Amino acid sequence: MTSRAVEGVLIGIIALTILLGGKNVLVEIAHFPAAALFVLLALGALEMFALRRTIALGGPAARFRVSRDVAFIAAIVCAMAFVYAPARWSIGAAIAALEFALVLEFLDRFS
Asked: In sequence order, which residues have a C-beta less than 8 Å from that of residue 15 and are 6 or more positions away?
């Protein structure tokens, strides 16, 4: 088994885990809003740096990778919205954006 195949399987496992248990994780971290918002803000900052790097690198797959990074940022923003003010739309939107980003990551690995 190649390393690409292992990465693909692990991305699939992560996506399945988030699909099945992502709502519970968001509900649990919402019990600690200050810590959760701090960690989500740090992850958002790291993802913004990754987005800038992806744009700077360019190349034939740049649009695809930028879309993936923007989907990760959207998932982080929706998770922050849920932690700050729990709304029914934000939890589903966070999970959907994260799943979309993981599918794009999976497709990027095998394209």
From this structure: 99, 102, 103, 106
Token duo for residue 20: 């099945």
Q: Dihedral, CA atoms, 80, 24, 85, 91, nearest 10 degrees? A: 70
37 contacts: CB under 8 Å, gap ≥ 6:
80, 83, 84
Q: Kindly state the tokens that stand for 44.
A: 């958002």
pTM: 0.89
d(CA 89, CA 64): 26
- Indicate if the pLDDT at residue 95 is higher than 90: yes
- Residue in 72, 88, 81 with CA at minimum distance from that of residue 14: 72
